[in-house]
Amino acid sequence: MTEPLYQTDAYQQTFDARVTAVDGSAVTLDRTAFYPGGGGQPHDVGSLSAGGQAWAVTQARKAGAEIWHEVDGPPPRVGTAVQGQIDWTRRYQLMRTHTAMHILCGVIFRDYGASVTGGNMQPLRGRMDFEFETMRQEFVRAIEAKINAEVAAARPLKVAILPREAAFQIPDLIRTKINLLPPGIAEVRTVEIEGLDLQADGGTHVANTREVGQIRIVDYKSKGKINKRIEVALAAA
User: Fold this and answer.
1) Same domain for 51 and 152?
2) Single residue among 36, 70, 86 that ends a domain in this structure
3) Alpha-carbon gap, residue 108 to 120, rounded angstroms
4) Strand 31-32 versus strand 3-4 pairing type
5) Lower CB count within 10 Å: N or C terminus of the chain?
6) What is the extent of the structural domain holding 158?
7) Do 227 and 154 fall into the same domain?
8) Are residues 191 and 101 in the same domain?
9) What is the pLDDT of residues 143-173, one digit of tens each?
10) How much is the pTM?
């Protein structure tokens, strides 16, 4: 079982671990800061090193209780003590982008009661689909002003890991149209933007909305009768 360090400290960039299994060019570790992807957020990349040798980590993926790290070249052996290093520039951009998605979702749910029907992100860009019948330019500009007001409000974010029964006592915990949480999980991780949004979420986020920076709505389009897409972009710094 891999201990997911990213769940409790999204700012951890390096870590020490031990290789627990090898399968082809992939290894599992007893602990990792590499996010394996999920919820629309891409996986981390970075490196592992040991004894003067380094391996590029090109992919991280979750399989059951294990997180597998795809590496370039012959992998380190089982039992090897390694140091992990995530690509922090990319990770931090994804953290800002993921939090921007939650700000957008929180504002639209609070002010318009619309559910999320889909979403995806890359560093500094993301898109989210909502149950809206119509969407016009003036409406989009009003949403943009509201989400940037939440950035300026410097709202703290809090992460909690709750027993499943306790988590599902929280009203509107699942903001997607379909509940994507696996039925067998015993604990649910929640991410709260204080005073704005509280959702079940497994990804990485910044500690305060001000870190997101200005959010621009760069496109919007219809994806169906009651399905409208909003695309956002963030500045590099």
Assistant:
1) no
2) 86
3) 17
4) parallel
5) C
6) 91-234
7) yes
8) yes
9) 999 999 999 999 999 999 888 777 777 766 6
10) 0.92
